[in-house]
Write a structure and sequence with these properties.
The chain has about 100 residues and is mainly alpha-helical. It has 5 helices and 2 strands. The two termini are about 20 Å apart. The relative contact order is 0.19. The longest helix is centred in the middle third of the chain and has 23 residues, at about 50-75. Helices cover about 65% and strands about 10% of the residues. The mean pLDDT is about 90. A two-stranded parallel sheet has the order 1-2.
Length: about 100
């Protein structure tokens, strides 16, 4: 259920992030394992769909600020979020300190 909430609705979180990057002229791609990682983390916290946005933001925050300037410098027009990248960014976030409800 969490996976479908993350990816399927018209205003799904993944679609929102893709649109934000599209505004900057960057194609955002997610490895399918990243979706599973996000859903598993949400399940760990036992907070359901409410925590999906926070987890996505923890993973995407740096890229949202770095990609526009990187695009100018290198001409990069796409960004692929891999499982390793997602794990690294999540571990750096304060979100991992949340207590299970």
């Amino acid at each position: 259920t969490l996976l479908s909430i993350l990816t399927e609705p018209r205003n799904a979180l993944v679609k929102q992030y893709k649109k934000l990057f599209e505004y900057e002229g960057v194609e955002l791609k997610f490895d399918p394992e990243v979706y599973t990682f996000i859903v598993d983390k949400a399940d760990e916290f036992k907070l359901g769909a409410r925590v999906l946005r926070s987890i996505c933001e923890a993973i995407m925050l740096d890229a949202m600020f770095e990609m526009p300037s990187a695009k100018e410098q290198t001409g990069e027009k796409s960004l692929e979020i891999t499982l390793d990248y997602a794990k690294k960014k999540f571990e750096k976030s304060d979100l991992k300190k949340l207590k299970v409800a």
